[in-house]
Design goal:
Blueprint: H1 2-9, E1 17-22, H2 34-47, E2 51-58, E3 71-76, E4 84-91, E5 94-100, H3 102-105, H4 123-140, E6 150-154, H5 160-167, E7 173-178, E8 186-188, E9 208-209, E10 212-214, H6 215-222, E11 225-228, H7 231-236, H8 240-243, H9 247-252, E12 257-259, H10 286-299, E13 308-315, H11 324-333, E14 337-344, H12 346-358, E15 363-367, H13 373-380, E16 383-386, H14 396-403, E17 406-410, H15 413-418, H16 424-429, E18 435-437, H17 442-456, H18 459-470, H19 477-491
Parallel strand pairs: 1-2, 1-6, 2-5, 6-7, 7-11, 11-12, 13-14, 13-16, 14-15, 16-17, 17-18
Antiparallel strand pairs: 3-4, 4-5, 8-10, 9-10
Helix pairs in contact: 4-5, 5-6, 10-13, 11-12, 11-17, 14-18
Amino acid sequence: MTTIMAEAENGVLPAKGRVLSVTSECVPLIKTGGLADVAGALPAALRAEGWDMRVLMPAYPGLKERFAALEPVWGEPDVMGGPAQVLAGRLEGIDFLMFDAPHLFDRAGSPYLGPDGLDHPDNAERFAALSWAAAAIARDGLSTGWKPDVIHAHDWQGGLAPVYARLQGLSVGTVVTIHNIAFQGLAPAEKMGALRLSWDAFHSGMFEYWGQISALKGGITAADRVTTVSPTYARELMRPEVGMGLQGVIADRGAAMTGILNGIDEIAWNPEADPGVLPYSTRQMKGKAANRDRLRADFGLGEVPGPLAVVVSRMSWQKGLDLLPQVLDGFVARGGGLAVLGAGDAEISAGLAAVAARHPGRVAVRTGYDEALPHRMFAGGDAVLVPSRFEPCGLTQMYGLRYGAVPVVSAVGGLADTVIDANKAALDAGCATGVVFTQVDRLGLAQALDRLVDLYAQPGVFRAIQRAGMKQDMGWRRSAAAYARLYEDIRA
């Protein structure tokens, strides 16, 4: 700590400590989901709290070329079957440690899937190697002298880092964050040797799960603290319908479990200064109507007399989007319109395309992903639909709130923690920010859309809901302070 204090006084480091963030993805380098946004936002947010965070992630093809300079700072001749090194570089204000192991990561496909759309067969080894490197850095430090006080591992891909740290008796604090418990990093027990795991730890109190290895379970049991990305999801994880078989393990760690709500980048997502939209604010909302017209043009929609809703989502059963084709005819009949951007489940996509074919000019679907288009959709949409069956945190509803696109959400996870239902009491108090429904089925969603139409028919009421949402604090300040307190508790 004395060294850190001295470096801080020289302007090199914050004073409180060092955190190694272990993640499989991080913006601005690569993103497949919300994990990347969180991993990319935390370093700057924690810097304001006095913590120096560096991000350890795989050097997928093409990523090293994004850096102006990279410096080798760690290496071993054999990490899960081949040589590996860590290269340090800085990009867009983030200190990256790129785990460069070509035998594991220099290949076609996505971070997790091959060109055939199936999991890479050695995913267990690939991300165990990432976790191994994290523990080695915590043990020996980097060649520059940097050594973490805390390892913060994300999801199953970093889950073995606390396991390796515990098995090696390292004096480093460990945190595991569960972004989505549906993905647990299962591997057959036959891989114990390949993953450098001890058979002494192959039991139900560590990483053994029904005769298999579970990287996520290992992280949950071995870490000093376990967090997830919203307070409600933290409670839900102890229930069998959400815990995905790990509810008992999480309940056993109850005292060590914390739900810390994600935030969003309020600079990048700001309707007053967003370069991709016509500016507007709670004080001057005229630009919102102009953005609505632009959105209709973007999607080839005609006049929409009722609320124009948007969906920006992965097409999946989890997101509840299979329910939309069942209720959209009624929504359109009452004046509503819908613009959809997403990709995923072919059956859901086909169902939405069929609705669009029945209602040309009122429903439009675009597949794929476009980084700029969601900004225009939230700016132009009157509402954003997020009818998830489970949602650890969710960022879409936060973007909607920020842009005055009233969220219509199910009462689960982070959706329940961020959206206040427009019931009579909330409307009378002026704090309503959206429509929240409890039964995630056809009737529940249909009733929620009926409520949206009814609210939209009352312009003064609807505008008040929009403004209340836009005034919400969706940034990282409070969340970063909670993480900082967690690190301090571990260090104490």
